[in-house]
Predict the structure.
Amino acid sequence: MIDRDVGLRPETSVRRLAVGAVMLISIAINFRHVLSAPAVYLGGDPDAVAMALWHTWWPQFGLLLPDALALTAYSGAPFMANHLRYMPILQSFLFGAFNRLVDPVLAMNLVLMSCQAATHYFLYRMLRTLPANYLLALAGATAFVLSPWYSSKASQSDVIAIALWPLPLAITMWSSWLRSPRTMLAIILAGVVWLAVLNGLQNMAWIVALLLPYFVYTWSRQRALMSHPPSGHLRNGDQVALICLLLTVLLLLYPAPNVVRTTNSGEAAYAAADSVASGGILNLLMRTAPAVWFCAALVLVTPISIRSARPWFVLGAANIVFALGLLPGPLDLVSGALRLRLSALHTPDAFWPPAMLAMTVVAVLGWTKWQRTQPSKTAVTLTVIVAVGLVGAGIISPADRGLVQQMSSAATAFYAQVAGDPEDFLILQYPFGLHNLQDGQATGGSAHLVQYAVWHHKRTLSGVAPHFTPAVHAAFAEVPFLHPLGDASDSANTAVKLAQAVQEWRIGYVVLHTELLDEHQQWWLKLLVSQSNALCPGVQRGSLLVFRARWYPAGCLP
């Protein structure tokens, strides 16, 4: 039985030394940038402290960019706001506690570091409940949290990254409940799963794709072993598991009768919020196809799975199929069924954490089986080599440098000041626009200021509503001042439109991110602002050039 605690062999002194060596290596690598953090923070440089903490929970930057300001979405505002809005409830309490002691930048990094440590610990505890020894559990957990796939994929969806720890915790508690069914343990387990749901709808990716199918599989195996079933096909544990997995997938289809029903806007009842759906049988087939393809993927990978870890291998392979973007995200069905006005419930990246977790478990179980057939000294030596190699691969693997954005303390302070302002207004950013219109795709891709406004209980601060119909998007695409590349000969007409928008849309600030604009773009925008006569002279705030609207009650910036 895959979730039975088979016990551990007595630990040898050599193994204890090996475990200690792996722990020391991981600690030295993870925390070498944090040693000076308290002194730096007391010196009044929160950016440097945040950088040190960033290196702690994403150590790839520690070797690749040791001297760079590796503050991405956690440099304060506005990018930190994306996480503050969607931060899980429990982490929000943790952030609030930290924020009473330190500034928001440091508090956010402390939350991220704490959640990364919790993921490592609970995954280690989960592996120990499986037939894996102490060293293999430590190596597997360390390899997972330092994996380049986990760091580069899961960390792009940071809500998932900071909310992953309930997954191994829930599986561990489920295994304990199977061995000793107790009411209190079941209540605690339900609470953990409920916390995972509250961690954000994006976590539905791994709840539906890994946690729920694994629960169904192990429960059916437990029932089959306890009842000593006859040799009937439906009593066979593997077939019961496959049937239950198919039923799990059918959960995605429960709103199918509502496909052709439309809302007042003419959109299908559970269509994705950023899509325009049409009724009819074609739409029904298009929206049920992901579940059909999901079933097909399970059937294809099952025959080649490792029998001792079959559910993990099947679930990991199926999740990787989704993570590679080969199939549409099936949870769009759920988001629309609940009429959630979210432009994107999740991306394929949401499937990387459960996929990597499942494959990590398969690797640990497979290595355990091989290790127990080898001489003790050879097994320990090879295990240490593999563990150190996995840690090293996770550290030196290329990180996604596109995530690195440098933001000065002055820029962070400006956005924090704006968010606390009693006035309610819009902010026009360049090169982002009100919402990111530069890529020519759907609007809202860089609407971080919307989340920042919500954090400060403001109504707008950034722009218009976060969801647009194609017609509205087309109308905004025609507004010339949203684009920094323009013809100087037409600047007077564009300036008039900008002045009208400043008054009608209540644009409080126009902000130029000079590090992202070339000299020609900056010259054109400065010309546009000066000709509009609606904005005060610009004031430099670090890399930001800030223009405040003349209608602003407090007047121009000092």
About this structure: The mean pLDDT is 61. DSSP finds 24 helices and four strands in the chain. Residues 20 and 135 are 9 Å apart (CA to CA). The beta strands are 426-430, 507-513, 539-541, 544-548.
